Amino acid sequence: TSVSPHARPIIRVRPLTCTETRRGDRRVVHSLGDGAVHVSAARHDATFGFSTVFDTGASQEAVFEGSGMRQLVELAIDGFSCTVFAFGQTGSGKTYTLMGPLAQSETQPASPALLGLMQRSFACLLEQSRSRGSDLALSASYLEIYNEQIRDLLSPGSPCTLPLRWNKTHGFYVENQLSVDFESLEAIVSLLLQGSQRRRTSAHALNRHSSRSHALLTIHIRSRAGRQSITPLTWVLQPSACPSKQGTLCFVDLAGSERVKETGSSGELSVEANSINRSLLALGHCISLLAKPRGKWTHIPYRDSKLTRLLARSLGGSGITLMVACISPSSRCLSETLSTLHYASRAQRVTTRP
Questions:
Q1: 95: annotated binding-site residue?
Q2: From first to last of its 354 residues, what are the pLDDT tens digits of the chain?
Q3: Distance between CA 77 and CA 187 in Å, rounded?
Q4: What's the predicted TM-score (pTM) here?
Q5: CATH H-level, domain 8-102+113-224+245-290+300-348: superfamily
Q6: 238 labeled part of a ligand binding site
């Protein structure tokens, strides 16, 4: 399979909200076609180039088909470490792009047309595993990073805090994280919805359902290629003739960047916002350094936050990464939109060794 050594950022521009339209916000972001995004406002006139841009009218299905998610699922089955992460300002549509409507639950599922990248990827994964006829074992783990604490979203009872460790073999990993086996689409979607309902969220001036944590759902895919074509005797005498593959497909829903003054946050909300912004700043710093020519690297400070430690392999190591940059077209969000676009521009210069 052909694998790009570059992190691949795509842009999604959400529509203006009813609130933004009512108060007279202007649309300052326009897609020019061929991956070009133009930002036009007083004292700001800039054009950015990306491989793929989804404008305000793009459907959830169009984003899935046009983002390369099918290929990413196939690569994960083939044993690669694949990561998808959504970033952008609070309220820019990250969780909607990954999961679909916030109001969905097991008893009130979302309309199939509105399902996000995650559910569509799960369906593609199970379809691929059936069509390949390979012996796949699937499991899922789900955690959040809240105020620099890692919490297991699938453990029974209230989410428990887990330690983050490092060793030479695996790099950074979460100790004692629960991993749940699944074999059907219903089972993995149930795990997704159960875990998502336990995430820390709050309402503030910019977003009525603001994620206060970074969430990482990881699908672990274990297979033994060619098992059906090898006799038991050959398998015993030549174990290498039947290599085992272990791939992962990780979805990262980053908490949104936000300016505390604009959100009206105070007390605990302010503490959460500062923690979110610090970890996003650390992530941005790592991306800026990784975007430099490899010979100019001095030190990549992955240890500056729990988030960068967990994403170290995806960003600058042996992983394959798809970055979904979500932006608002509103004139009121201009500063954060430009910040996200600059962030994504740097990210597409990052190279890895899949």
A1: yes
A2: 456 666 789 999 999 999 999 999 999 999 998 999 999 988 889 999 999 999 999 999 999 999 999 999 999 999 999 999 999 998 899 999 999 998 888 888 899 999 999 999 999 999 988 887 767 899 999 999 999 999 999 998 887 899 999 998 878 999 999 999 999 999 999 999 999 988 876 554 454 555 779 999 999 999 865 444 444 444 455 545 556 789 999 999 998 876 555 545 455 767 888 888 899 999 989 988 888 876 666 788 999 999 999 998 888 777 899 999 999 999 999 999 999 999 999 888 887 778
A3: 19
A4: 0.87
A5: Kinesin motor domain (3.40.850.10)
A6: no
Domain boundaries, the chain: 8-102+113-224+245-290+300-348
- The reply to whether 89 sits in an annotated binding site is yes
Which residue in the block uniquely carries the two structure tokens 């089972």?
Answer: 187
The answer to whether 319 is a known ligand-binding residue is no
* Residue 43 burial (CB count, 10 A): 5
Question: Both tokens of residue 102?
Answer: 């916030």
Evaluate whether 284 touches 342 at the Cβ level (below 8 Å): no
Helix, coil or strand: residue 253:
strand
296 in a labelled binding site:
no
- How does DSSP classify residue 239? G
